[in-house]
Each structure stands twice: as C-alpha cells, then as structure tokens.
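Figure 3 (text version): structure tokens given as input.
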C-alpha cells in the first residue's frame, strides 16, 4: 500500500518510471497505477538504466527510478550509489524499497545508511518483516511527507493502522535501535551459513535455484522435516523468478549443529549436483523454480 500510494502520487501520465526487472510486485503495481510510462531495465544493469535515461528522460516531465534495496528474490543489493549518480545526472527521483534492508543492513538502518547515501531520496519500507508488525512506512523530506499526506490515495482513503500494530511497530524500531546485538546475531547466522553453503551470501535472503517445480516442492518438504520452514517459490506469483518473503515465522526454529548441513546435503542430493558450483551456474540461467532460505528463521 505504501508503494502503491507513493508512486501513484509522485508520478502521472506525463512521467516516466524506470524500474529494475526484479522489483517486488507492489512496486510494479504502483507503477501501473500511476499511469506513467514504465520501462524496466535488466536486473542491476546500470548501462541499461542509463540507456533508457539518455533516450527517454527528456520526453517526460518527471522521472522516477524505482528499485528494491535488497532484492526479495535473490538477496542481492541494488547498486544504489551508482543509481543515485545517474539520477543526479538526469534529474530523476529515486524511490528505494527497504523492505529487506531495514533491520538487517547498516546496523538496522537499511542499505541507504549502509552505503552512506546522503542525497535526498524516497525510502519506503514495511513494518512487517524485521520490525515485526504490520503496515508500511515512507521516509523522506518534510515536504515529501506533507505532499504524500495530501496526495497518496492509499494513505488518505484507508483506515489507519490499529493502535496495537502501531505500538508494536514503534517497539520494533526501538529494539532495532537499542539492541544492535540482535542485528549482529543475524549476521552471525549469515556467517554460519556462509561456511556451509556453496554460494555467495549477501543478506539473510539466500536463494537456492533448483530449476524444477516438483523438485523444489520436494526439497521444501525435506527442509520442513528437518524443522526448517523454507518455502518453495514457483510461478505464477512472480514468474519465472518468484521468491519467498522473510516474514517472521510462527514457530521458533533451532539451529542445531546438524540441521543446516543436513538440509544442504538434502538439497544437493535432490538437485543431484556432482559439481555444485557448476550446477548453480546452470540453474541460475534458467531458474523456473527456487527455494529461498531465510536466516531470520533460525533462532
Ligand atoms: C520488497 C518488498 N516490498 C514490499 C513488500 C510488501 O510488504 P508487506 O507484506 O508488509 O505488505 C514485500 C513483501 O514481501 C517486499 O518483499
């Protein structure tokens, strides 16, 4: 809702949106709702972004570059510093969705803080993941917030969050600020997984590209039998590169010495990879189905 309202308020029919191809569905829907012209650029491809800017920026009144900070499918980061430089050069605004950066990167403050970005931009995020409540937020200049209070339909025409959800969200933010050891612990888990998994890990979102829907489901079941909730993601929700959400899980899970390596073995057996890194490369090229490993879930 935060993305829908913000994007549709900021740009309209005379404007241009440039969007990373792997952006979350709500960013794509916000773009559609705005009625702006929408061009996607290949995931993280700055040259493609600049090509669009060079060719199309001058034809439109405003331009908004829209990107996830941490991509919900792959757990990689947007090249945000470079995007900001391009935005400066072409007089574009930048909206970054910190849904998976908040509470994780930059000591909990997100990717923008982690990269030390100080130029004005629009930060949107959710209160439902690391913050542990419900709802979304927009952060930006006072003028931006004032503008959105008067123009964002999803803010104006919906009932506000309940007091309980709001209090829980405030408490979540407070915990992130006051108890940095929680974030440190998350990164210890990430480090732990780095030692047992075969792929580079950038954030708590760790995709495992399987490439076959039946196998993906079977692996997810195996994980579950090890006590790990690692959802299988498959088309159609976001074809062909769907992913799971790292929402807080209902059941606390244990990080036993055996569970994670056991699951990795399970996976490797299923995908039948004699050379894991080669197979990974292969599946990355045609990822029709995948699993996403959410380290938030390992307590
Ligand atoms: C990048 C991104 N933005 C927004 C959302 C939506 O968050 P919520 O479920 O709190 O509405 C998600 C959910 O997974 C997400 O991954």
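Below: residues designed for each position.
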């Amino acid at each position: 809702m935060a993305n829908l309202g913000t994007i549709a308020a900021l740009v309209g029919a005379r404007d241009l949106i440039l969007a990373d191809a792997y952006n979350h569905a709500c960013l794509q829907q916000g773009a559609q709702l705005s009625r702006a012209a929408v061009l996607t650029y290949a995931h993280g491809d700055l040259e493609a972004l600049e090509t669009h800017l060079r060719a199309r920026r001058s034809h439109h009144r405003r331009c908004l570059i829209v990107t996830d900070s941490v991509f919900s499918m792959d757990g990689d980061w947007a090249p945000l510093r470079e995007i900001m430089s391009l935005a400066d050069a072409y007089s574009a605004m930048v909206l970054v969705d910190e849904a998976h950066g908040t509470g994780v990167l930059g000591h909990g403050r997100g990717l923008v803080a982690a990269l030390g970005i100080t130029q004005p931009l629009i930060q949107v995020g959710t209160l439902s993941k690391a913050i542990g409540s419900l709802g979304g937020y927009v952060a930006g200049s006072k003028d931006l917030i004032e503008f959105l209070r008067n123009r964002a339909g999803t803010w104006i025409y919906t009932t506000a969050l309940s007091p309980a959800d709001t209090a829980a969200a405030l408490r979540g933010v407070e915990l992130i600020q006051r108890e940095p050891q929680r974030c440190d612990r998350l990164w210890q888990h990430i480090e732990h997984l780095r030692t047992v998994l075969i792929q580079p890990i950038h954030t708590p979102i760790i995709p495992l590209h399987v490439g076959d829907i039946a196998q993906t489901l079977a692996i997810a079941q195996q994980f579950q039998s090890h006590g790990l909730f690692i959802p299988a993601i498959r088309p159609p929700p976001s074809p062909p590169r769907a992913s799971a959400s790292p929402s807080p899980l209902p059941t606390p899970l244990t990080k036993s010495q055996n569970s994670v390596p056991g699951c990795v073995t399970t996976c490797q057996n299923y995908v039948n990879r004699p050379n894991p890194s080669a197979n990974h490369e292969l599946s990355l090229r045609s990822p029709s189905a995948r699993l996403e490993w959410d380290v938030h879930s390992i307590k």
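Residues 238-258, 270-288, 294-299 have pLDDT under 50 and may be disordered.
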